[in-house]
Specification:
Layout (H helix, E strand, L loop, with lengths): L2 H5 L3 E4 L7 E4 L1 H5 L1 H12 L9 E5 L2 H13 L2 E5 L9 E7 L4 E7 L8 E9 L3 H12 L3 E10 L15 E6 L1
The chain binds adenosine monophosphate (AMP).
């Protein structure tokens, strides 16, 4: 499937989850075998020769893309989750939301020092979620080879929240 056809599977939902936000509903992409395969291979392509050890997926839709990409790259999957969802000891990073703040966690020992990882999510919007995930992986002393999103909302300039040495790729840009 070409990218223009893939784009037709992304559904805009105005004013969800709140007024003024246009939610990018990727469920029709997941439900379409050819569409999902195109998304996964398109996202994995940049990293095929990068010897990636693990693909880090951000809760919740990031898990789906991370799992598919990990299969293509013969890598493992590591979840980054909302607070209180992971057993045993964790590392945690708080980050700012429009109203208030939230946190993300990773299990201690989930990543080895120097492990080659990419971090995956469905949508890169303001970049706060991904920035917090980058900070978590840095705390683990992982080698962050790249950040990879299915969709990037360019007008929100999310990638400007990351250091310039973080290589950021996205399959579909708005
Ligand atoms: P942000 O931290 O602003 O970059 O937001 C990224 C996270 O929020 C991702 O995990 C997305 O799943 C979700 N998200 C933010 N904006 C949208 C949007 N317009 N459509 C779908 N998901 C979004």
């Amino acid at each position: 499937m070409d990218i223009e056809k893939l784009k037709l599977l992304i559904r805009d939902v105005p004013d969800y989850p709140k007024e003024g936000v246009v939610f990018k509903d990727i469920n029709p992409v997941l439900a379409d075998p050819d569409g999902f395969e195109t998304a996964i291979h398109g996202m994995a392509r940049n990293y095929e020769n990068s010897k990636i050890d693990s693909v880090v997926g951000i809760e919740a839709r990031g898990f789906i893309f991370a799992a598919g990409i990990a299969m293509v790259l013969s890598a493992g999957v590591i979840p980054v989750r909302k607070p209180g969802k992971l057993p045993l000891s964790t590392k945690s990073v708080r980050y700012e939301l429009e109203y208030g703040d939230d946190a993300l966690e990773i299990q201690d020992g989930a990543v080895s020092i120097g492990e080659r990882v990419i971090i995956v999510d469905d949508v890169l919007a303001t970049g706060g979620t991904m920035r917090a995930s980058i900070d978590l992986l840095r705390m683990c002393e992982a080698d962050i080879i790249g950040v990879c999103c299915f969709i990037e909302l360019d007008f929100l300039k999310g990638r400007e929240k990351f250091d310039r040495n973080i290589v950021t790729s996205s399959l579909i840009n708005y």
